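User: Sequence recovery, please. Input:
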């Protein structure tokens, strides 16, 4: 295996695990939310669906930060209204 590609893959893998661990840590008090989030993410089977979900997330975050005049932080992830909106958006994309 080509050494630079292997190193890049390992770095990316470490970043992924770190981000997932951080998400889990930030939502330890919301286990049902995490389970539902991961289950719905696993239902995304095409790159087009994945891009649509990322676009929805970006729009929701931008709208929430604009409406609430908050500084960009991850606290919006815990806001119940945001979570309901994400749930609705996922359902509309995945036809729940």
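Assistant: Recovered sequence (96 residues):
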């Amino acid at each position: 295996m080509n050494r630079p590609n292997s190193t890049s893959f390992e770095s990316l893998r470490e970043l992924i695990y770190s981000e997932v661990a951080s998400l889990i840590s930030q939502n330890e008090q919301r286990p049902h939310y995490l389970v539902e989030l991961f289950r719905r993410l696993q239902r995304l089977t095409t790159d087009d669906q994945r891009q649509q979900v990322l676009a929805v997330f970006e729009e929701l975050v931008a709208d929430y930060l604009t409406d609430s005049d908050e500084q960009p932080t991850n606290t919006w992830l815990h806001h119940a209204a945001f979570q309901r909106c994400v749930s609705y958006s996922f359902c509309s994309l995945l036809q729940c």
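The first helix runs from residue 3 to 26.
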